[in-house]
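Risk register update: the risk of archive-format incompatibility is retired. Evidence:
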Amino acid sequence: MRFINIENFSPDVEWLIKSNELTSALKKATTIEEKNRIIDANESKWGELKDSLLELSFNKCWYSEAKETYSHYHVDHFRPKKAARGIDKKDNGGYWWLAFDWMNYRFSGPAANVRKRSYFHVNANRALNYADNLNLEDILFLDPIKFRDPEELAFDNEGIVRPKATDKTLRNYKRARYSIIRLNLNSPSLIDKRKDKYRNAVILLMRINKKLDLQSIVFDHGREIEIETDMRQLWSMCSKNSEFSASVKYCLKSSGFDWAKEIVEKAA
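Archived output:
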């Protein structure tokens, strides 16, 4: 998961007008059944933004950073539109007023979206109506459009993603763990791909550091070119358009090498 600056994008005026009309119709509907019929009849609306949302993440799932076959992607409603289930699986009612709100959309691969479904646990200050302040909700899910949330995940050389916090009583640990489980971030296919990426990064790190040590003893122009080439490869691996770049970033930042941290900064 990496930060997605969704504010860099806005749907066209026609889409926004239609979205507002549909939201107004939802507000006027007097029963949940009527609201759901409006949502079902217009489910193609969020699909119209697929291409634009895809571009924001360089063709990657916003949750897992995996590049899937295009037809398998989903436009996920971060806050579920019809039903929202807590840890106890009880339905606390969906966020129907966000069904056509593009700021509630997250671009998701199947591994995350199928497992997430209608789960959305709120610890406190649950928004129940159109006028309620969503910013007051204390939610368990990490959100890729929140600047700090993706940094709560850590990675290892086996391709496993885990909470960055180690104290299980901490809120950040609980949020990361819930997100990992509910978004299926440790599915076997994701683990295998992250493992390859992480280990390739480790190989490059060790190779570069050895050559840097040799350069400090005897400078060699040919070796300097090799170092430059390998560093550029690491830079590419942790750039935003690269698959599973968050795991590479974590690998470089936790290496203890100042030069590796500088590569991460350049790729930010």
